[in-house]
């Protein structure tokens, strides 16, 4: 038996031409009673791969406007997507999803601008998410879409799409960047953010935004644009109506990937993604530089030194002193530089000291922007900080072991077991890859018959040289090859298996990481380094970067014994068979368990959730057989919004005694002030509930102006007789990750 709480929908097709009038809709009985509702539509021409996606509450006026738009005259078909349960927020969300997925699907290139692509939160959003999946299935049946959503989710075209949704931290950064460049004057903006903070997504979004006409950006039926962003973008367009703009990528693999993304995006071109050396050919109004920490200086360049010197000579820079950063500063009016000092991995990278001067100057000139929210790794900032402390040997006290119900971080004693686990994740989720540090010579580059890595009689090869898209290659999927830092930096994986080689060890007497230069086989990565501490920092940066690739999990295998023993003290050890946590149920429970064959969801029963089991998100629990269903005691009556949880701990004992079974209602929206709430946030680590969840009293402070309001802070207060429990305070930058799962109703 399954419970599938989704809404129905219908898709209607019409020819798109000037004879299409209100009468045509009225004559269609099935459509006429839906056109006064919010709906989503697609106007398309498959022969030229063009489509426009929109939403409206006035389909007659909206389509008439499109028919009068010369830019849409080549479109031929109109599809209306309707549902009795649509509202404005839902259609905005589904429109946004359609733009994102259709742009990456490849059947059409959406003609839309990307200004309004953001998340939309609304009541029953999980049901509408399920509805979108059904809509997509029907679009595939009608040849409006081709690939499964899961395929698109893992594709580079989706992950780096300029139509990707922006999160609040990125929107804030976008607004600030536009404000800084709105006067059209020469300046250098530095955007600093760690791994997984959304730098590349913001960079591609920004270049699409700046290269789209103001008319195409401002969708006349939309009312949810940020007024400040509109103001700034109009000013930018006034100063740069058709800016000469490019995205500079120093890394070959990532540059190739983004070239493909731009080639498949309306309004962008493949030649807008350039290497630093391309700057010798022309000047630009605006340059956006992603992964700037990988820009090069004249050191350890090997065969590339001739072309490097040629650019320096052409730009009249010093042969020894000119760097790729100098090229960028000299050949553009405005520079927007995305930088992370922790991802510099070899001596040829421009030194941190150079960027520190640039950052200092940017701060003085108020052209410095930071990205702080962790958007990639589901383990959140806790995991990022933990890995940093693990590799710098600064773990202490309660921080000695990382635990998260939202993220798999495991140590493997056996490489075979790690590969088996990765294979399972690859079959289930895709993008599960094996990566490693430079502890093995690259023999297979010279002799294809040879293997590079031999561990526990398992023979593996490094990724092929100059592989354009190793992440999605068959050898990578089959775990026959191991990715190095150069083929994986800048990419997202679902799961990463990281092999620590014999170039890195642990000194138990000094409590520090040490490196063995002889066992480090990146020749350009160690040539000319005299201070072993400098090499150590590069190697640590490599492993940190590799450990930040996996969105849902990181699995670790360590070759060196001392380092292996150190990791086993701080990383959960993988066990072949894991016990499944069962909620204890007995005759003293205040409710009756309903046998599965008698369950009528939300009629005679409500679901019983275990907070830890549900840590992947309550929305994932869609099968009735996945959990117990209970009959509520009087006077409570089953409702679709209700669920039951057991609450442990003393932090709320004034209202909820330790061990109480409690009834919650799914958050209906509206004011939550002073209500007791069950919330989820990746930065919460409540000892009573485990990482990610807590039950507390909700309090917020707001910033209010004439046009709108926003949360400044949210405080989650304990209601306890024990003073050791403290407030959990979430600041503005952290609020985007907060999810109110339920509102407390009663102790049962």
- Count every beta strand, where a strand is a DSSP E run of 2 or more residues: 31
> What does the main sheet amount to?
10 strands, mixed
The first-to-last residue Cα distance is 27 Å
Q: How would you sum up the global shape?
A: globular
What would the average pLDDT be, to the nearest integer?
86
How do the strands of the widest beta sheet line up side by side? 22-24-23-25-26-31-27-28-29-30
Secondary structure category:
alpha/beta
Rg calc: 28 Å
Q: Identify low-pLDDT runs.
A: 1-6, 577-584, 612-625
The portion of residues forming beta strands comes to 15-25%
Number of helices: 22
Helix content: 25-40%
Characterization of this structure:
A hairpin with a 4-residue loop joins strand 18 and strand 19 (512-515). The strands form six sheets. The chain has a ten-stranded mixed β-sheet. Helix 4 (88-105) crosses helix 5 and helix 8 (168-181) packs parallel to helix 11 (227-239). The protein contains 22 helices and 31 strands. With 748 residues, it is an alpha/beta fold.
Q: Key terms for this structure?
A:
single chain; 748 residues; alpha/beta; 10-stranded mixed sheet; 6-stranded parallel sheet; 31 strands; 24% strand; globular
Short characterization:
The chain has 748 residues and is of the alpha/beta class. The chain has 22 helices and 31 strands.
Give the helices and strands, then pairings.
Elements: E1 10-15, H1 22-27, H2 29-32, E2 39-45, E3 50-56, H3 59-67, E4 77-82, H4 88-105, E5 109-110, H5 125-141, H6 149-153, H7 156-159, H8 168-181, E6 187-193, H9 199-210, H10 214-217, H11 227-239, E7 245-249, H12 252-263, E8 273-274, E9 284-290, H13 305-314, H14 324-330, E10 332-339, H15 352-364, E11 368-371, H16 380-391, E12 408-411, H17 415-428, E13 432-436, E14 453-455, E15 458-462, H18 474-477, E16 481-482, H19 485-488, E17 493-500, E18 504-507, E19 512-515, H20 523-526, H21 532-547, E20 550-558, H22 561-570, E21 572-573, E22 592-593, E23 606-609, E24 628-631, E25 642-647, E26 660-666, E27 676-686, E28 690-704, E29 709-717, E30 728-731, E31 739-747
Parallel strand pairs: 3-5, 6-10, 6-11, 7-8, 7-9, 9-10, 12-20, 12-21, 13-17, 15-16, 17-20, 23-25
Antiparallel strand pairs: 1-4, 2-3, 2-4, 14-15, 18-19, 22-24, 23-24, 25-26, 26-31, 27-28, 27-31, 28-29, 29-30
């Amino acid at each position: 038996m399954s419970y599938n709480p989704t809404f129905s929908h219908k898709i209607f097709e019409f020819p798109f031409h000037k004879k299409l009038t209100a009468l045509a809709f009225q004559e269609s009985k099935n459509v006429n009673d839906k056109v006064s509702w919010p709906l989503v539509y697609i106007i398309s021409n498959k022969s030229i791969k063009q489509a426009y996606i929109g939403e409206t509450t006035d389909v007659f006026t909206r389509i008439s406007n499109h028919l009068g738009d010369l830019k849409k005259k080549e479109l031929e078909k109109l599809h209306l997507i309707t549902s009795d349960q649509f509202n404005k927020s839902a259609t905005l969300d589904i429109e946004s999803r359609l733009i994102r997925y259709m742009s990456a699907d490849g059947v059409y290139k959406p003609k839309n601008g990307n200004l309004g692509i953001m998340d939309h939160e609304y009541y029953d959003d999980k049901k509408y998410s399920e509805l979108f999946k059904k809509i997509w299935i029907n679009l595939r049946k009608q040849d409006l879409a081709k690939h499964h959503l899961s395929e698109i989710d893992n594709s580079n075209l989706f992950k780096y799409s300029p139509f990707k949704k922006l999160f609040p931290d990125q929107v804030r950064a976008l607004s600030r960047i536009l404000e800084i460049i709105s006067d059209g004057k020469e300046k250098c903006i530095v955007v600093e953010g760690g791994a997984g903070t959304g730098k590349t997504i913001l960079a591609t979004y920004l270049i699409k935004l700046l290269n789209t006409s103001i008319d195409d950006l401002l969708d006349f039926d939309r009312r949810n644009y940020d007024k400040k962003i509109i103001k700034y973008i109009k000013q930018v367009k006034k100063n740069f109506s058709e800016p000469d703009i490019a995205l500079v990528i120093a890394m070959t693999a990532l540059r190739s990937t983004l070239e493909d993304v731009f080639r498949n995006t309306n309004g962008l071109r493949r030649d807008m993604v350039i290497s630093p050396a391309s700057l010798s050919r022309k000047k630009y109004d605006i340059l956006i530089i992603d992964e700037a920490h990988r820009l090069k200086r004249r050191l350890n360049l090997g065969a590339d030194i001739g072309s490097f010197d040629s650019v320096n000579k052409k730009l009249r820079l010093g042969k020894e002193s000119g760097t790729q950063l100098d090229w960028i500063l000299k050949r553009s009016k405005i520079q927007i530089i995305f930088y992370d000092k922790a991802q510099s991995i070899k001596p040829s990278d421009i030194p941190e000291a150079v960027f520190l001067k640039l950052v200092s100057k940017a701060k003085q000139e108020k052209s410095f922007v930071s990205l702080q929210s962790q958007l990639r790794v589901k383990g959140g900032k806790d995991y990022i900080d933990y890995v940093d402390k693990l590799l710098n040997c600064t773990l202490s006290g309660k921080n000695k072991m990382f635990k998260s119900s939202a993220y798999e971080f495991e140590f493997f004693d056996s490489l075979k077991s790690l590969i088996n686990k990765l294979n399972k994740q690859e079959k289930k989720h895709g993008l599960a890859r094996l990566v490693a540090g430079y502890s093995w010579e690259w023999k297979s580059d010279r002799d294809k018959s040879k293997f590079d890595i031999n561990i526990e009689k398992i023979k593996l090869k490094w990724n092929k040289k100059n592989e354009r898209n190793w992440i999605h290659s068959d050898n990578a999927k089959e775990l026959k090859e191991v990715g190095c830092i150069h083929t994986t930096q800048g990419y997202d994986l679902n799961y990463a298996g990281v092999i620590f080689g014999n170039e890195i060890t642990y000194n138990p007497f000094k409590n520090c990481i040490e490196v063995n230069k002889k066992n480090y086989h990146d020749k350009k990565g160690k040539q000319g380094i005299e201070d072993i501490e400098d090499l150590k920092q590069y190697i640590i940066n490599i492993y940190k970067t590799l450990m930040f690739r996996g969105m849902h999990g990181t699995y670790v295998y360590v070759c060196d014994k001392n380092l292996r023993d150190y990791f086993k003290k701080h990383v959960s050890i993988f066990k072949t068979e894991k016990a499944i946590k069962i909620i204890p149920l007995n005759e003293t429970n205040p409710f009756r368990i309903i046998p599965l064959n008698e369950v009528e969801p939300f009629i005679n029963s409500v679901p019983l959730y275990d907070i830890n089991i549900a840590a992947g998100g309550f929305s994932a629990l869609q099968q009735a057989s996945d959990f117990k269903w209970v009959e509520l005691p009087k006077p409570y009556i089953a409702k679709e919004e209700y669920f039951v949880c057991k609450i442990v701990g003393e932090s709320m004992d004034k209202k909820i005694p330790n061990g109480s079974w409690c009834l919650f209602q799914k958050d209906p929206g509206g004011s939550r002030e002073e209500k007791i709430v069950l919330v989820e946030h990746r930065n919460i680590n409540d000892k009573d509930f485990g990482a990610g969840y807590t039950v507390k009293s909700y309090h917020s402070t707001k910033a209010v102006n004439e046009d709108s309001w926003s949360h400044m802070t949210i405080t989650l207060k304990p209601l306890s007789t024990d003073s050791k429990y403290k407030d959990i305070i979430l600041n503005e930058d952290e609020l985007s990750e907060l999810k109110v799962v339920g509102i407390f109703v009663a102790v049962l």
